[in-house]
Structures are given as C-alpha cells and as structure tokens.
Design goal:
The protein has 263 residues and is of the alpha/beta class. The chain has 10 helices and 7 strands.
Amino acid sequence: MATATNETDQEIMTRLRERFEILEDMTRAVKGGTVRAMIVSGAAGVGKSHGVEKVLHNHTLLSIIAQDKSLERYEVVKGAMTALGLYAKLHEYRHKEHILVFDDCDSVFSDELSLNIAKAALDSNEKRVLHWNADSNMLKEKGIPNSFEFCGGVIFITNVDFNHVRSKKLRSHLDALSSRCHYLDLTVHTVREQLLRIKQVVDDGLLDKYKMPQELKDEVVKFVCDNPSKLRELSLRTVVKAAELAISFPDKWERMARVTLMK
C-alpha cells in the first residue's frame, strides 16, 4: 500500500472511506455473531465510535419493531476500567448476542491483569472461560462467580496504534490481543489524514442540520484546516463547535473560536 506521504489526497480519502465502511460491516458481523471480537484503532475524534454505535443503534430500533429484547443487549463503556470492573462487565454481557463496546478504555491495554482478562474474552477458541483467582467482596456482593463462560461479542475502540507501541512488554500483550481477534486499523493517524477525514465527513453531511450557507461551511472547515497545531483538539467535535459559533455569532465567530477552541 502507498503511504500517506506519497498518496494523493483523493487516494487517502478513498482508503479512509473503505476502512470506515469495513468498520460498519464488521460491527454488523459482531452483532450477528459470526465475528466475536474486534479492535478498532485510529486517531481520536474521527468517527470511530459513531460508526459502531450507528450500527448497534439500528439493531436496537429493529428490536423495538420485532419486540425482541435480545437484539438490544449492548452497552458502550467509556473511560477508565479496572481489571475487576472489566471482569464484572464481561460477566454482565456474557450471553450470546450480547455486545460490549469499550470506547477509549485504554487503561486496559496498560494493565497486565486487565490484558489477561481481555485476552480470555477475545480468545478464538470455541469455549472462552474467564477466571478471577482472588477473593473479592465486590464479586460476592453482586453474585458474580470466580469463573464463567463468555459467549458475547466485544469491540475495543482505541486511539492506540498497535503497530507503533515501543514498550516490548506491552507490545507482546497487544500482539497477543490482536492475534485473537480482528484488528482494524482505520489508518487515520497523521494530521493530514485527520484533516482529510474531517473534510470527508463534512461533505457527507456533518453540518447539514445547521442549514449553513455553503460559503460559511467552507469557512469553518478552512479555519480548522489552517490551524491544526493550535487547536485544543483536532476532531469532528471541534468542527461542530466552530459551526455552532458561526451560526450564533456570524460577525465575530472566528475571533471567538480562536479564544475558545485554541490552546
């Protein structure tokens, strides 16, 4: 594959669109049970979570129409996650057709005990049995056994680029994780790729709900693309914030954006 340094903008955007379409297809496969686990890697704020949640939300709507509660059994878990919390959450969603999405729970990847639990849950063996070989009042209080079979699906969404982790110890664990499940690198890692992805999502209708004139929409995108290193966060969220300012303060939005959105 060509690298971002020698690809044209159009080639990069075509590559990114294909990867994000694969993301949605793979999420459907996890929901359907044909794929049991997936790790999704890419820069923050480029729509990784949105692609996954959109597919799972559509299944929730389907469950309402079909009046089948089993179709809506999924949860998106965000933020810090301890090893014990991970074990308990996997127990809660242990049944077939249950889906757990760990979004930006990167603490799992830096803790050896959490990694071992994750490896057991993502294992490609026919039977996945998780163990907690230590006394725990929390597990006792919640009636969670010290071992159980996990039959659900798991999706980890992370900003960690598994291909460029320097720690040898962590590298071996991450290799073991990615060997147990599907690893999808969305290839959005450089500033150039992030900016092209932002333009792509805006073209796909990110700002349509604001009913903005095309000229103003172009100004918002230009503001973000001209100042990537100065922004507090280079992401789709920043584009939306800038658009909100442009709608609310048409005569001075850019000045306000420099104060509120820049470092």
